């Protein structure tokens, strides 16, 4: 039979960093975690906007909730907040160039950003990109500021994963670069 330890455990409020953590160290450690790659799109008065996002997760089945994180002060973050809706486009392994295009800091915005990229407009007016593995159209339910990012918690109101894409692997991101999964 196990007994409780005689030592006192720290509470979350009393924990402190044991050493200074640099942004480079944190980025290097977090880069060890393999993620998928998405492009989040939203619609503004000046047209559609989009950015590459790998901070994306499912939160709840009932109701269907997801979460994305966008850099505070980003163009797409401001558009998502103002529109109250967005689309998550899940990229396939053959879409690394598309992911890189929407990750570039100097990329164009509005209609120019989507020039030459096949897409249709979803119910919210946000672009649904052609050839992606799946997409989720979402309505923002809550925003949370956390450090240098904003978390958008959203309810999924429409989605699709085309049967033609079920056997195609997703695009992945690891150690600062795109990877294809066999």
Automatic annotation (TrEMBL):
Pfam families xref list: Flavin_Reduct (PF01613)
| The keyword DNA damage appears for this protein | no
Q: Which SMART domains does the UniProt entry name for this protein?
A: Flavin_Reduct
GO molecular function annotations of the record: oxidoreductase activity
Top EC class for this record: oxidoreductase
Q: Where is the Flavin reductase like domain?
A: 30-180
Enzyme Commission number: 1.5.1.-
Keywords in alphabetical order: Oxidoreductase
Q: Which residues form a coiled coil?
A: none
Keyword Oxidoreductase carried by entry: yes
- The name under which this protein is listed is Flavin reductase family protein
Q: Which organism is it from?
A: Streptomyces milbemycinicus
